[in-house]
Amino acid sequence: MRWIGGMALVFALSGCGGMIVPPAPGGGTAPAGRPASTATRPAQHHLVRDERPVAVRQADGRIVAATPIPAQAVVVPPAPANALAAGIVAGPPVATLPITDAQAAAARTAFARSCPGLMRRTDTTGLTRGADWQAACTAANAGGDARAFFASQFEAVQVGDGRAFATGYYEPEIRGALERRAGYEVPVYGRPSDLIDVDLGQFSDDLKGKKVRGRVQGSALVPYYDRTQIEQGALAGRAPVIAWAADPVEMFFLQIQGSGRLRLPDGNILRIGYDTQNGRAYTGIGSLMRQRGLLQPGQASMQGIVAWLHDHPVEGAALMRENRSFVFFRELDGPPQGAMGYAVTGQVSAAADPKFVPLGAPLFLSVDRADATGLWVAQDTGGAIKGANRFDTFWGAGAGAEATAGGMSARGTAWLLLPIGTLARLTTAATTPPAYPLTSALGATPQP
User: Fold this and answer.
1) From CA 235, how far away is CA 194, in angstroms rounded?
2) What DSSP designation does 223 have?
3) In this predicted model, what pLDDT tens digit does every residue of 269-293 receive, in sequence order?
4) In the chain, how long is the greatest CA-to-CA distance?
5) In the prediction, which pLDDT does 21 show?
6) Quick check: 377 and 106 in contact, CB under 8 A?
7) Does the model's pTM come out above 0.90?
């Protein structure tokens, strides 16, 4: 999984971690890293070609605005538990959505890759069953026109009020070394040996789906060490050190992204990905900085926050420790992956809340930024990506991806693409009128 996302680096710095496959220049594959064993060194990279257009800004660097298709006005119950509880209404016909050929081709590839997990997983949204996806998955591997594939296999549905908020994430590259040396003093920890995951659903049906992490102290399970305790040496002898980073601020942000690359002194690349987390709640420092008036006009971006932390090292270190959450990594021997265990692709994959979006499902975003408008595939999750219509779009690696993800904050409308017949089945299956009935509102006007 990814831990948090883009302006989730701004607001979630006010708050997927995922292993990620970045697009390469010209749409080709990214270069392979240095060889490695499983969870130790990058090797045998099975790279994914990014077929979506890379140009997301005008030549002068200005962001291209877009006018979102409006969502339908609906009444949503407070704090719905999943998509079914939030209510769904029919969206516009998929054929009328402004999907480009390149978007459709890339999204179909990502969807097909996710199909085994999509059909195997229990869908906690309450909307689909594994078998519902069989026809679309079979068709995805049959070739043919990609836009026609989506139009023939899917229907668009609006979850809840449909009002989307999308941030962005990317694959950061920071300086690191395999051994501790001068200038490389920040440990990159693997999973601690005494960290325990507890599935509370095994103890009570009322707690199904709830988990905690901690450690055993005497005969009690207690919370695991927080960021301050870890930075003060609590993990000595308890966790492997995968590598040593050069900059604590860079390492902090790599934890937020959930995975990334370490550029070693000899020029080789070590790829690391999210393994687990200490179980402590995430606190977004971007939100804290705004509340305390620490960010000046023009600093409300990931880049602005990083600059402030570098300019105020003592205050910055204390501020970062207010985020008690801490991420542990594993070394990757292949391309980065999302929460489903499949490679994710720049400008195609997105993180979503699996209670509101079946992981592996396509979705269409019509938002106020042209670069984020289009077809995406939900292949990842994120610690701050919670609730209906909350997404974190993945942009790959490199300076362009960092700039886009770091400033991504897009609002508009989201439609989830489900197998044709899903809405009718759910409506028919309702034996009593629900408090927030499933309704239909076809004929929405597509974005010009």
Assistant:
1) 10
2) E
3) 999 988 999 999 999 898 899 899 9
4) 69
5) 33
6) no
7) no
Name the one residue in this structure whose structure tokens are 């370490």: 262
C-alpha closest to that of 156 among 69, 74, 91: 91
Q: What percent of the chain has pLDDT over 70?
A: 81
Worst-scoring range by mean pLDDT, 60-64, 255-259, 387-391, 440-444?
Answer: 440-444
Residue with tokens 């690391």: 272
User: In 248-376, which residue ranges form alpha helices assigned H by DSSP?
Assistant: 248-257, 285-291, 302-311, 313-321
What are the Cα distances from residue 248, in Å, to 109, 245, 326? 37, 7, 13
| Per-residue tokens: 433 | 């009128």
25-34, 196-205, 244-253: the lowest-pLDDT one: 25-34
Rounded Cα gap, residues 400 and 23, in angstroms = 11
Count Cβ atoms within 10 A of the Cβ of residue 54 and give its class: 0-12 exposed, 13-18 middle, 19 or more buried: middle
- What whole-number distance in Å separates Cα of residue 102 and Cα of residue 434? 40
- Pairing between β-strand 241-245 and β-strand 186-189 as defined by DSSP bridges: antiparallel
Question: How far apart are the C-alpha atoms of 203 and 159, rounded to whole Å?
Answer: 32
CA–CA gap between residue 63 and residue 59 (Å, rounded)? 10
